[in-house]
Each structure stands twice: as structure tokens, then as C-alpha cells.
Model the fold of this input.
Amino acid sequence: MAYIPDSNIVLRLVNKKYPNHLNVSQTLKKLESDGETIFIIPQILVEFWVVATRPIDVNGLGMTTDEAEKELENLQKLSRFYPKTNGFSMNGKRLSLNTKSAANRHTTRESSRQ
Done:
């Protein structure tokens, strides 16, 4: 059977500080050892990027764009990356390059509110 994890699962897998990190990690390993397939689709990468690059004080992970880009690459290596969904196609590198300016706008917008 194939599984597409929710972005919250992916966030818990990446961030070892989350209380459920170990449980998520073990569950995904168990699924893979049982021969199940885990797919990462573009939507999950986009949702991951938004939270990963959001400042910690606004419920994000506070990663730099370079750190988030590295995690995107790792996520694609750990699972099968399914790059096309509903006519939407991309790769992680293009996603990160296109969203760096969006992450910077978010940070600037948050700074101007304070």
C-alpha cells in the first residue's frame, strides 16, 4: 500500500524537538520495513517550507532558507518523491528558490509589526 503523510507528520519527522518525533520516525520505518511506500508530494513540500522558514515565535521552525532546502532534499531521498499532482509539477530545488523571497517577505512583514 502507498501512503502520503500529512505535512504535520513530515514536520515531526524533521524536528527532533517535537514530542512525537520518535513515534513518527518509528512508525515510518515500520511501514517501510513492511514493504509499504511513502510518497512525498509537492503540496507537502510547500507546507513544510512555509512552517520550516517561519520564525519560531509565530509557530514555525525558524530555519534559514538554506537549512529548509537541505531538509527538502533529505525528505525526497527518504521517500519516493511524486512530482506531479493535479497538473502541478515541480522539484524541491525550484520550490526553494521560488519561495526564498516569500520567506523573506514573511520575516520582513513580522518585523514591521513589532
Remarks:
- The chain is about 60% helix and 10% strand.
- Helices lie at 7-14, 21-33, 42-53, 65-78, 92-113.
